[in-house]
Amino acid sequence: MRYLKKASKSPTTGEGDTHKIVQDMLTDIEAGGEAKARDYAEKLDQWTGDIVVSTQEIEAAGASLSPQTRDDIQFAYERVEKFAKAQLQSMKEFETELSPGLIAGQRLIPVQTAGCYIPGGRYAHIASAVMSVTTAKVAGVGHVVACSPTRGDQGVHPAILYAADLAGADTILALGGVQGIAALAFGLFSGHPADMLVGPGNRFVAEAKRILYGRVGIDMFAGPTEIAVIADDSADPDIVASDLAGQAEHGPDSPAWLISTSQSLAEKVIEKMPGCIARLGEPNRSAAENAWRDYGEVIIAESREEAVKQSDLYAPEHLEVHTQDPDWWLNHLSNYGSLFLGEETTVTYGDKAAGPNHILPTKGAARYSGGLSVGKFIKTVTWQRMNREANRDVGAVSARISRAEGMEGHALSGDDRLHKYFPKERFELQGP
């Protein structure tokens, strides 16, 4: 691999020790309950209004939006819902006879309550409301609590309220940050403690989810958003540069990587990046400039196979492929959150309205995990039943393995059933 541009920082650079701050806040809120959560909302977000958003406020938020905005949110919702339903249909319950008289199976059981965090700080993440809440409802979650930060004394962004309500949120809280995550986890203001927490957020939100993991389920340990583009000499450098700059505007620590089999193409993209970033207004421009300066990389791969190897090492959240023969790349790439094949699609479409979920693994987690899906909200649980005759073999084998492990109590559970069901028979029950 040859670097035309090497990042001075990595996705883990600059991770301040936020653990103590977040841990102290969670402890305070759990002990102080709703009153303490309100205190943090006032202190950090200058919000003193109602935490639970009323039906009247939601209706007013929808009425304040233009018909075009409502139509656009509906468009995105329909595609996200359709894709989520297809995911659900791909999952199934079953039962099978493993040996005569021994029948086992699996059930798919949705969690009872999901907490969906919808960012609303620098940007109003309308699409995140659609992605998280819709997917939970399609999965069959009984109660979905959504929360989103307020904008000073203006409350939650009206488009977020409209989108979350359209997607099926049962309760919406005007609460952001660690206090929002705490409210979801502890059931504050809703009476429904979350079994699962999902949604992107800043480093404090991510750390709160990390600390609470185990007590509740989470979608993933999320970091700053990432994009990688694989491009050959058929790619359009203007489009590639535009897509890299578009993702870099998320924040000054958002990695943007280009892997190219064409040095000429790569050099053109580097040349065009400043102009693409300059088109942005503030604060987006500064965020993208810093991200490209500190986290941008451009690598020349000598072959398609080398490009695949490098991409799989990055395991990027978003991976665009601007090459000939996109099916070859689909069949050979392994590690990514979501894959965008061909110039005609882009991360922007996936982020906003195409259908597949945009809540995706970062910081290399795509090596072992996918993004948010219906399956994240569903427990795959197993069951089994046996007739007495099936105990003849399974009971004896289980008793012998238990004794080989030194677990006599386990062995006796098998012995007792064999003696009850087959009182006239003798079994070899000792381990080797």
Could you please describe the fold and organization of this structure?
With about 425 residues, the protein is α/β, with parallel strands linked by helices. The chain has three domains: about 210 residues, Nitrogenase molybdenum iron protein domain (Rossmann fold), CATH 3.40.50.1980; about 140 residues, Rossmann fold, CATH 3.40.50; about 35 residues, no CATH class. About 45% of the residues lie in helices and about 15% in strands. It has 15 helices and 14 strands. β4, α4 and β5 form a beta-alpha-beta unit.
SSE diagram, text form:
Elements (H helix, E strand, L loop, with lengths): L1 E4 L13 H27 L9 H10 L2 H24 L3 E6 L2 E9 L2 E5 L8 H14 L3 E6 L9 H10 L3 E4 L2 H10 L9 E3 L4 H10 L4 E2 L8 E5 L5 H12 L7 E5 L2 H16 L5 H12 E5 L3 H11 L3 E5 L3 H7 L5 E4 L5 H6 L25 E9 L1 H18 L2 H14 L11
Parallel strand pairs: 4-5, 4-7, 5-6, 7-8, 9-10, 9-12, 10-11, 12-13
Antiparallel strand pairs: 1-11, 2-3, 3-14
Helix pairs in contact: 1-6, 1-7, 2-5, 3-4, 3-5, 4-5, 6-7, 8-9, 8-10, 9-10, 14-15
Write a compact overview of the structure shown.
The protein has 432 residues and is α/β, with parallel strands linked by helices.
* Cα-to-Cα separation, first versus last residue: 55 Å
CATH topology of the largest domain: Rossmann fold
Characterize the main sheet.
6 strands, mixed
- Give helix % range: 40-55%
Task: Give me the Rg, rounded.
Answer: 26 Å
What is the N-to-C succession of helices and strands? EHHHEEEHEHEHEHEEHEHHEHEHEHEHH
CATH homologous superfamily identity of the largest domain: Nitrogenase molybdenum iron protein domain
Structural class: alpha/beta
Low-confidence segments: none
Walk across the major sheet and give the strand order.
1-11-10-9-12-13
Count of runs of 4 or more consecutive helical residues: 15
Q: How many strand segments?
A: 14
- Classify the beta-strand content into a percent band: 15-25%
**What's the CATH first level of the largest domain?**
Alpha Beta
Q: Domains counted in the coordinates: how many? A: 3
Mean pLDDT: 94
3D shape:
globular
